[in-house]
Amino acid sequence: MYLARKRIRGGIRYAIRQSVKTGDTTVSRELFDLGEDPGQYIIYPGSGPGFYFDDQLCDRLAEQGCEPDYDELESVLWQFLDPETQRVIRGFTRKAQPRAVREQIALQVRRCETESFHIFDMRRAHYLRFGELDQSRIHAAPRKIYRSLLDKSRDEIEQQFMEMEQVLEAREKKNYAYVIFDVPGYFTGPLARKFPEALDRERVDECFLDALCRLNADTGFWADLGVTKWLNDYLIRYACWFFDT
Predict the structure, then answer these.
(1) 194: domain range?
(2) Which of 140, 193, 220, 241 makes an SS bond possible with 184, Cβ 3.0 to 4.6 Å?
(3) Rounded CA gap, 219 and 225, in Å?
(4) Does 111 fall in a domain?
């Protein structure tokens, strides 16, 4: 399960979704609409840090064949827990990972060596890990950095990147959009990968828009989400970062 966010007028609407394997494709399904205040489904029976999840939420998950796991729900709704409750939970969390978890991670790392990842996802993960303008050697990077992309639907991957990109400072966002859409690939020579500010601004804008439209129309990338005649909601922020910062 994962937490999905959708911007609406005046705020954000949340939902719990799940990625499921359907044939050769991993798709997303919505399990529960949390509304604009997911905290309403976290019940504190007393004055202490103890809590439980509302029966309405748990029953709905069970009805859809997704038996509520409190640890998983706790992880999904972590940001909505009371700060004191978070502090207490951290104090009881084991520092060492269980052997089963370590083995699962090792298996995923090995899978990364043979799995195929979309280049746009690779560019985003690479920049967020290394912060490099020059991605000409991206295929030489350790493939384990893409482990978090495994077994996820396109929707879950996009939600994950929205969360990961929160570490970007305002001044970084334009460069980030420039790199992940591989605008440097439209130019010859090293200048575009090292000093993008030296390039013709109008030409750079044209190249970015071309790359943006190509990705927006990429049926393989969007998978079960499908393509639209308008700019996909998940791409709007990149256009804003590129042109408004």
Answers:
(1) 118-244
(2) 193
(3) 9
(4) no
* Domain stops at, among 75, 92, 109: 92
Does one domain contain both 60 and 125?
A: no
CA distance 176 to 127: 7
Are the beta carbons of 18 and 3 closer than 8 angstroms? no
- Do 133 and 195 share a structural domain? yes
Residue for token pair 């000409």: 136
Same structural domain, 153 and 67: no
